[in-house]
């Protein structure tokens, strides 16, 4: 460790090139030797894994290899391999979480991907989505979600299940594809779905990165008639400077603010501010993560009209979603 620190400190020293002072930093991974039955190649692989862990911890740090790193790497490789197989054989399913009014009547629905692995059972999106992002598989996965959601919405409308739209989450890598707008257009045409029936949810991190490209694509989508929502609003780079540039339809209040709004004054103020700002900008506002009647009543009192969360319904497979829609339609 002492030697590694000395190396890191030396590499941090400034150096002069063409009369300009430059600086660099280093991330160092260390594997201990000797270990029984380990080759030189495996030793270097361990050090490499430790180096990447050092980068993940903020760069310019030192990290020792630990067997748990190998397990993490093995799990990642396994999931990536299984992801490719699941995409090939379409082992994924879409669940739909109702977006409702205060009485539970369905206004729209959010499509959420689920993966039931034949051996490991249900694998959380929190596990496989980052791997899909890193491997580039998110493009194919996002394309499948887009087409499947459009197809399902068309089926519902044909069956007389009238809803405003279906929402899908779009990843940064998917949105940054040069042909993204055309891909969405083709999915709508292929499924004979009017563009107004689709809402694309983007996170704040996506929209603030390369704002010119973001605005150009969002305007193209809006010209088609597609709705656009900012997901998890307030958790990222909220700024009126960029918000006023974006052709939005909806702000979605993040569940981290909704969760404690009845007991945390700061969360309550943030939620109220977001609702007022959305109304002043003539945007729809929806609150996600609504789990109690007290949360719903507070949001309703502050002017929020659309809700999503377990208080109304968890995400449902297609057949269960239809039953919920029929039940709530009868009630209303």
Task: Indicate the topology.
Layout (H helix, E strand, L loop, with lengths): L1 H11 L2 E3 L2 E3 L5 E3 L9 H17 L5 E3 L2 H23 L2 E9 L5 E12 L3 E3 L1 H11 L2 H21 L6 E5 L2 H4 L4 H11 L7 E6 H5 L2 H14 L2 E7 L6 H4 L6 E4 L1 H4 L6 H16 L3 E5 L4 H10 L3 E3 L9 H14 L1
Helix pairs in contact: 3-4, 5-7, 7-9
Any overview of this molecule?
This protein is α/β, with parallel strands linked by helices and 332 residues long. The protein has two domains: 2-65, Alpha-Beta Plaits (2-Layer Sandwich), CATH 3.30.70.270; 78-331, TIM Barrel (Alpha-Beta Barrel). 50% of the residues lie in helices and 20% in strands. The chain has 14 helices and 13 strands. It has helices spanning 2-12, 40-56, 67-89, 125-135, 138-158, 172-175, 180-190, 204-208, 211-224, 240-243, 255-258, 265-280, 293-302, 318-331; strands spanning 15-17, 20-22, 28-30, 62-64, 92-100, 106-117, 121-123, 165-169, 198-203, 227-233, 250-253, 284-288, 306-308. Strands 5, 6, 7, 8, 9, 10, 11, 12 and 13 form a nine-stranded mixed sheet that branches. A two-stranded antiparallel sheet has the order 1-2. Strands 3-4 form a two-stranded parallel ribbon. Helix 3 crosses helix 4 and helix 5 packs parallel to helix 7. The radius of gyration is 24 Å and the shape is globular. The model has no long low-confidence stretch (mean pLDDT 87).
């Amino acid at each position: 460790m002492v030697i590694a620190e000395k190396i890191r400190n030396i590499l941090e020293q400034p150096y002069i090139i063409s009369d300009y002072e430059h600086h660099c930093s280093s991330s160092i991974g260390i594997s201990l030797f000797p270990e029984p039955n380990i080759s030189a190649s495996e030793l270097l692989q361990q050090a490499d894994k430790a180096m990447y862990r050092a980068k993940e911890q903020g760069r310019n740090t030192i990290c020792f290899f630990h067997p748990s790193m190998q397990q993490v790497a093995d799990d990642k490789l396994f999931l990536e391999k299984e992801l490719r197989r699941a995409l090939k054989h379409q082992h994924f399913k879409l669940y739909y979480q109702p977006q409702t009014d205060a009485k539970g009547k369905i206004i729209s629905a959010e499509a959420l991907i689920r993966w039931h692995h034949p051996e490991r059972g249900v694998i959380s999106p929190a596990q496989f989505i980052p791997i899909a992002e890193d491997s580039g598989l998110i493009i194919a996965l996002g394309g499948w979600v887009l087409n499947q959601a459009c197809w399902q919405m068309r089926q519902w409308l044909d069956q007389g299940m009238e809803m405003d739209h279906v929402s899908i989450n779009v990843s940064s890598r998917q949105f940054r594809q040069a042909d993204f707008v055309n891909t969405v257009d083709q999915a709508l045409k292929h499924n004979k779905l009017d563009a107004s029936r689709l809402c694309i949810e983007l996170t704040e991190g996506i929209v603030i990165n390369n704002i010119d490209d973001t605005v150009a694509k969002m305007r193209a989508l809006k010209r088609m008639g597609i709705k656009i929502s900012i997901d998890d609003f307030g958790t990222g780079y909220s700024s009126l400077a960029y918000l006023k540039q974006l052709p939005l339809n909806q702000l979605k209040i993040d569940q981290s603010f909704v969760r404690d709004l009845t007991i945390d004054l700061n969360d309550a103020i943030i939620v109220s501010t977001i609702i007022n700002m959305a109304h002043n900008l003539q945007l729809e506002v929806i609150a996600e993560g609504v789990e109690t009647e007290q949360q719903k009543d507070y949001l309703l009192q502050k002017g929020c009209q659309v809700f999503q969360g377990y208080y109304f319904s968890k995400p449902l497979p297609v057949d269960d979603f239809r039953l919920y829609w029929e039940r709530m339609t009868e009630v209303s």
